[in-house]
Write a structure and sequence with these properties.
Chains A, B: Keywords: Amino-acid biosynthesis, ATP-binding, Kinase, Lysine biosynthesis, Nucleotide-binding, Transferase. Two copies of one chain form a homodimer. Chain A is built from twelve helices and 20 strands. By secondary structure, chain A is of the alpha/beta class. Chain A has an eight-stranded mixed sheet with strand order 3-6-2-1-9-11-12-10, with helices on both faces. In chain A, strands 13-18-20-19 form a four-stranded antiparallel sheet, sandwiched between helices. The radius of gyration of chain A is 24 Å and the shape is globular. The relative contact order of chain A is 0.10. The mean pLDDT of chain A is 91. At the A-B interface, helix 2, helix 3 and helix 4 of A face helix 2, helix 3 and helix 4 of B.
């Protein structure tokens, strides 16, 4: 059972979370609880570090920001003890959660189970583990990157061969789309790992992408639940293998992202190797290029359009202008349009169903929405459109693919 | 160099503290810095624990409250790095600071130096260590009790055979008496370990008693300095062996404590064993009896008076009434007077000088102050007087023993 920052934001909320743990213990389960820092704490600590040292030593960053989870772990253990549930806390180094040395974005390499299993053998019913942290081969504290507690939870579930991994958060599950912009959004009972991965990387903030990858690899039965509502066992959304999905929808959900900018290099010489000449310097500059489209060539010149996160526009412009100065590429001008958004439809059913893209384009055309860039994967189609059409596009696609109706 | 909570209360103050460390590094010293939590942090965490679980598991208490020091240690290391001083942080378990298992009041048993010395050998100039914490033989986090960072500092100075141990705090040294009630109070350049011990246990809040004991045992040259004033090397107060004291004062200081109550058992049967019959149940009830006086016996009965901390009066009354009911003692009534205070003069010179007590009593008599109870040690005389005379008594004694003049 993993409780995120908003689920442990106050002592009262920690008590509510502990009660949910108590219910599982009463059913006879031994439970590993993974906790985040009380909400706001990690941001406060990150603020301290960044103010102290803008180009901080990531090892010290990790030593500082990991402390919030330690506080919650101890308080959760005390709360459970008050409820007469035998519990104790573990910090990452005590388990130990062995990670790589990539401070601030370490990966879990090994979680020995002997320590905690020995305590379960002695009558302990709940091991409370500080999420988000581990220990490097050099014996220093590491953290897994923001949202890393989800990954901690899945990794423990895999290491201990847990019956399931329940992620308690401030939403009650995964939705067909964002309920704030489409009132017909419907909570999904189940979603396939692959779909969840696409949705997570498209900006759905329910689960950290890596935690989903890990759950998929180790076949961890992953459930997203709200810690703020009374729920029964069937509540929330189960993230699982596609074989376990009963619903037969072609499309599982519609995602959107405001954080996209469209860049166009106007009048580039269309010659072999031009794509490499453009995108290598962008990659070197740390620009995450998402979608790419190349216009039809005319008189040996073409326009090259790509999308990247809004906050990387300046970096992309600098990389392109530098490349132009060095003579490696040539273009007439570089245009940046930040008034765009990305709309995606995701569904494993696309693998076997043709016509999803055609239907998507037709729906958008009927609404008078012009598609600027298109990119597809095996189970996803994304388009870039003017940002003012975002709500309209999401709602129209949600209707068209019947997402408001259970499968 | 140890920096207390007020000396690292903000990022600005951490920077000021780091500058003092930088000065020592520039002189060629390798430095171990011991830090407390930012002031207010530990109290906040203790509050969380007590609200969660009034009779808390001390192991979880320690896991929670030790986190404040970890934050400061990382921030101090980052601040030093920003000043181009090679530094890194250590948490207690990383050194490791080995302690007993007495959670919340553990004692340091061993501090291996190899880890930190190896890093000094590699060019690191400052090891920043989280104070107040250690690790038990069972591998769990321990804390040393409030003010424990002083003890951490002295223990590191002893383990690493440091040239000296500088305690940076919010006062600029040890005074002949409390400057808030006697404007002639003078900062001492030097004070003997034994005197500092008496003053610390009499309520002077400059140093934790255990840190002074430890410094005395291991001959650590201990200095108390202000982190808020510009100081030169000779500043502050040096706590040292009495042989190193140049000043030849008989009395080093005058201490006072408001936190004293006087209890009197009226008309107790004066028989052998009566003292044991009274003070054994008080000890069993956890009452810290300080001073004791027994009146002259009349008709086989006497009055027995003792002092104890004000907040233990109710407990002492209950213990005495219970003992009376059980028949083990008999008295007419029990009186409690909380309008008293304790005034003490302390000085190693008393060992060789007679007449200090006589002079003290005479001074108080001249001011019309009645002495209610007296207790003495080899280097201390304490009296209980009415609380309204506290300032008067301190000022008169300070004058009489010429404490405003350097020795």
């Amino acid at each position: 059972m993993k409780f995120g920052g908003t689920s442990v934001a106050t002592l009262d909320r920690i008590r509510r979370a502990a009660k949910r743990v108590g219910v599982e213990v009463a059913k006879g389960y031994d439970v590993i609880v993974i906790v985040s820092a009380m909400s706001g704490e990690t941001n406060k600590l990150v603020g301290y570090v960044e103010e102290t040292s803008p180009l901080f030593d990531a090892r010290e960053y990790d030593a500082v920001v990991s402390s919030g989870e330690n506080v919650t772990a101890g308080l959760m253990a005390l709360t459970l003890q008050e409820m007469d549930v035998p519990a104790r806390s573990w910090q990452g180094w005590q388990v130990p959660v062995r990670t790589t040395s990539a401070h601030a974005s370490a990966r879990i390499e090994e979680i020995p189970t002997d320590n905690i299993m020995a305590k379960f053998g002695e009558g302990m019913r709940v091991a409370v583990v500080a999420g988000f942290q581990g220990i490097s081969p050099e014996g220093r504290i590491t953290t897994l990157g923001r949202g890393g507690s989800d990954t901690t939870a899945v990794a423990f579930a895999a290491a201990f061969d847990a019956e399931r991994c329940d992620i308690y958060t401030d939403v009650d599950g995964v939705y067909t789309t964002d309920p704030r912009i489409c009132e017909k959004a419907r909570k999904l009972d189940r979603i396939a790992f692959e779909e969840m991965l696409e949705l997570a990387s498209l900006g759905a903030k329910v689960l950290q992408t890596r935690s989903v990858e890990l759950a998929m690899r180790y076949k961890v039965k992953l459930r997203v639940l709200s810690s703020f509502e009374e729920m029964d066992d069937a509540a929330g959304t189960l993230v699982c293998d596609e074989e376990d999905i009963m619903e037969s929808k072609v499309v599982a959900g519609v995602a959107h992202s405001r954080d996209e900018a469209k860049m166009t290099l106007v009048s580039v010489a269309d010659r072999p190797g031009i794509a490499a000449a453009i995108f290598t310097p962008l990659a070197d500059a740390g620009v995450n290029v998402d979608m790419i489209v190349q216009n039809i060539s005319e008189d040996g010149r073409t326009d090259m359009t790509f999308s990247c996160p809004t906050n990387q526009v300046a970096r992309a412009q600098k990389a392109m202008n530098d490349a132009k100065e060095s003579g490696s590429i040539n273009f007439h001008e570089i245009l940046a349009d930040t008034a765009v958004c990305k709309i995606s439809v995701v569904g494993i059913g696309m693998r076997s169903h043709t016509g999803v893209a055609a239907k998507m384009f037709k729906v958008l055309a009927q609404e008078g929405i012009n598609i600027q860039v298109i990119t597809t994967s095996e189970i996803k189609i994304s388009v870039l459109v003017e940002r003012k059409y975002m709500e309209l596009a999401v709602q129209a696609l949600h209707d068209a693919f019947d997402l408001d109706k259970a499968g």
